[in-house]
Here is the input.
Amino acid sequence: MQTTQLTIQPQSTRLAQYTGKTIVVKYGGNAMINDTLKQAVMQDLLALNRLGIRLVLVHGGGPEISQGLKQIGKESQFIQGLRVTDRETIEIVLQMLAGKVNKQLVALLQGKGVGLSGIDGAMLQCQKCTIHGDLGFVGEIVKVDPTLVKLALESGFIPVISTVGVSSEGEIYNINADTAASQIAIALDAAKLVSMTDIAGLLRDQQDPHSLITSLNLNEVQPLIDNGVIQGGMIPKIQGCVDFLTNGGEEASIIDGRIAHAIFNELLGEERCGTTLYGANCQ
Ligand SMILES: Nc1ncnc2c1ncn2[C@@H]1O[C@H](COP(=O)(O)OP(=O)(O)O)[C@@H](O)[C@H]1O
Ligand SMILES: CC(=O)N[C@@H](CCC(=O)OP(=O)(O)O)C(=O)O
Here is the structure.
């Protein structure tokens, strides 16, 4: 396969501020539209890694899970953007997230990726999530142990994390990837959280791409959830941004992962698009 190497001088760009800093990138399953785009995203991450930015990739895989479930004749139900996860479903979640999706992404990182699940090193320690009733094996993170992630970063690798977690009893749980990315970003004291999804950003009207909300304050979020503007998978995404920013983070963005080099443009600050939320110290 032919690959292109991006050559960008860090000192001449906004990128310089991120050198030596940690950025957590959440790559949503819905944005992994095709192999060419996935390759382009991984090329961007490799280029950013070469510039000395400590990147952590947390991935989703919702569509792959749904596809796997379909093959065994199962449909999923989502409550507040979370998949109701019975025993059969957690098996598929494990196969798809910690197996197929994780390894496919690691394979594209040309030896620079190291695949980890939240179970490894008990990175994502969970208990059963009960805030929206009984969702089965959906986990609520009680603690993040970033030891393995830090080891990988210190050695120059890009940790690629699938969001299954483990309880103190050894039970495996399914965790929404945006929620996990946010908690990992907090534990790593990351400089920025970026969520790459399949839409232009947060829209006032999902049917109208011109209704993009380019930035918003934390106190504007809850009313948008209450009046139904923010729905489904966008709820844990925005909530993850809010949690990051109320726990010391400075900047969280939701960008259109369907556009090639969206992550590069976001960090370069040229052609930025999407929605950005800022922490208390940052506006
Ligand atoms: N106000 C909103 N603006 C944009 N997207 C929204 C909004 N409310 C709900 N959504 C939905 O959230 C989806 C993104 O979340 P999700 O499907 O979980 O993606 P991902 O796989 O990237 O995590 C969008 O495709 C859209 O259908
Ligand atoms: C509890 C829960 O909903 N877990 C998610 C985990 C994967 C995920 O979040 O993937 P995306 O980022 O592609 O949506 C799920 O089962 O779909």
